[in-house]
Amino acid sequence: MSTPPAFPASTVLGYPRIGPRRELKRALEAYWDGRSTREELDRAGAELRERTWLRLAELGLEALPSNTFSLYDHVLDTAVMLGAVPKRYLDAEDPYFAMARGTDGLAPLRMTKWFDTNYHYIVPEVGPDTAFALDAAKPLGEVRQARALGLETRPVVLGPVTFLLLSERGAAALDRLGDVLACYERLLAELAAEGVAWAQLDEPALVTDLGPAELAAVREAYERLGGAAERPGLLVAAPYGDLGEALPVLAATPVEAIGVDLVRGGLDGVAALAGKTVVAGVVSGRDVWRTEPERAAHALRTVRAHAAHVVVGTSCSLLHVPYDVAAEPDLDPALRARLAFAEQKVAEVVELARSSWDGPEPAAASVPLAAPVPAGERAPYAVRAAAQAERLGLPPLPVTTIGSFPQTGELRAARAAVAAGTLPEREYDRLVEAEIERAVRAQERLGLDVLVHGEPERNDMVQYFAEHLDGFAVTRDGWVQSYGSRCTRPPILHGDVSRPGPITVRWARHAQSLTDRPVKGMLTGPVTIVAWSFVRDDLPLRDVVFQVAEAIREEVSDLEAAGVPVIQVDEPALRELLPLRRAAQADYLEWSVAAYRRATSGADTATQIHTHLCYSDADQILAAIDGLDADVTTVESARSGGRILGAVGGFGRGLGPGVYDIHSPRVPGGEEVERLLREALKALPAGRLWVNPDCGLKTRTYEQVEAALTNVVAATRRLREELALS
Ligand code: MET
Ligand SMILES: [Zn+2]
Predict the structure, then answer these.
(1) What is the CATH number of the domain that holds 187?
(2) Which residues are catalytic?
(3) Are 475 and 588 in a shared domain?
(4) What does 229-291 look like in DSSP terms, one character per residue?
(5) Is residue 183 part of an annotated ligand binding site?
(6) How many domains are there within the chain?
(7) Ligand 1 pocket check: which of 402, 462, 566, 632 to mutate, most ligand atoms within 8 Å of Cβ?
(8) Atom of ligand 1 at shortest distance to CA of 524?
(9) What predicted TM-score, i.e. pTM, was given to this entire model?
(10) What is the pLDDT of residues 397-455, one digit of tens each?
(11) Domain range for residue 573?
């Protein structure tokens, strides 16, 4: 191929796609509900892309990315582009959304977290008979759409190695590398024929620990694609961390440009980038803070000393940050001045590209050393179990739920009305209390053993706590895509965290006042609160987590004082913050577990502490979960066919592997629940088994929940009788 033109001076690796006002969410949901056509949905997507390109150009960004848009998920888009659509979906009315969301008769493809972010991707299935065949319509279509506006773009596509490593079979799927590379070669040829100057292949898997086979795959992939006769210039981008051992391998291939994350990754390996164009990711795509100009300039100077050409860029796609700080007039001006969302980050990239990078060396980062915090010890489990059994008097196989009950539209509307000032807070509180009563009565009627208040007061399990703790700010429109049409508004943790007063106590107390059965108070754990927030970057993460743990510890103590006998502290994000590199994992697990214990170890011996994690590969971190020392742990299991059960044999305390997949409207039958319970009883003694759904019920309807829990209770009762007889 001929030498590509010089890469322009500034770029971003990707951009949010949900729309500044979540336009895509609305368009998707209208289509799914049958309120609009596929054409209307596609038009909404086209409009969002057009607005994004025009805005990026207006901000002065020189190299614009395309194909960063997706109707649902970019990994799913890649599977479709490569023809990796499992046969069972081909006859669906809309195979793309059938894979993403399932249909009446078909389960969706699995979904899991994207690297160490809270974005979820669809896991492709790649088997020995996947019939790969390129369909380049989407990337080509976006290039043409932008060109019609007079804008040249660089199509962004997930790279072949990461695509295979993220698929169901993981590294074993590299046995199909050759066929996948043939598709990518054709893709590059089609892009070249279209006159595209540069293409970007994203390879975030290269920042994880790679073995010899995986490194060989990297070499094979980029030797072959780099050697292709007809292709645009190639930028291989490796966001979310340090390229480490993959850097020299990649640098030795003919790709012209490499995108490195200089926020997460260090500058140690840059000498290996000699002769390359380097897209230097100095503006973070993972946080909401302004870039320190001295630190960025220092990194750019260091790269310039080695690379053939330096481009200012972002550390990763801006997918993980909200659109625009200007949409947040309610934020404290002093805080707002410290913030940069996607628009502001683009402006930073542009400004850095226009500056000379000269200047003083930055002061050595003065992040204070993390201070040790005692985790605290509770009485031995056997002592606790006896005290709790006496206090609670539960039957064998106690039935409980994970916390939330269906959130009604009425409640959401009321919350919006309070925010708008049109509904007095007192009336809202009464609505919440009525909703708690509804949930409690339903649970009594259904025959549950440990009741919950149903969490009607919470918009979100993290934001609610952030709103009631000092040190956090919440945004009005700071939405970030979590998966498909789902977005969250991560709070901004900007100062020292403290708890001005009780947060959940009045709701738990109200619930307990309505019933003689034990009520379980419901808190979000310190790791999860921090994981799902944008965190201040001037303190070690563990110190921030310990500050939050202290606040939760106070809340635990107040719940106990209010007579709540069971307290659940959820940690669904425990695994999400697990460092991508194994070398850093043990340290993380040690302090995150210690923080959880700090939050819960003040509890009385007779107070039963529960925790909840909602993923099926909890077995990866089972030792850490054990270290949490919770009296009862509930985990997802039904959705993933009980695979956790194989790993929990040695687990010494209460365990509730979910028997009901709450992600779909489907109501599980009694026999199905009974079968799952029998499976669980093979792995666990009856005295330690709890019965519960996979996760909270807030996205379901009361009708679905009551039908499902009726079956769950009936199945449990049958088994209890059997156990009593044996
Ligand atoms: C993502 S885990 C959710 C736990 C929370 N207590 C709920 O039931 O919704
Ligand atoms: Zn959950």
Answers:
(1) 3.20.20.210
(2) 663
(3) yes
(4) SS--EEEEEE-SS--TTHHHHHHTSS-SEEEEETTTS-STTGGGGTTSEEEEEEE-SS--BPP
(5) no
(6) 2
(7) 402
(8) 6
(9) 0.94
(10) 999 999 999 999 999 999 999 989 999 999 999 999 999 999 999 999 999 999 999 99
(11) 396-725
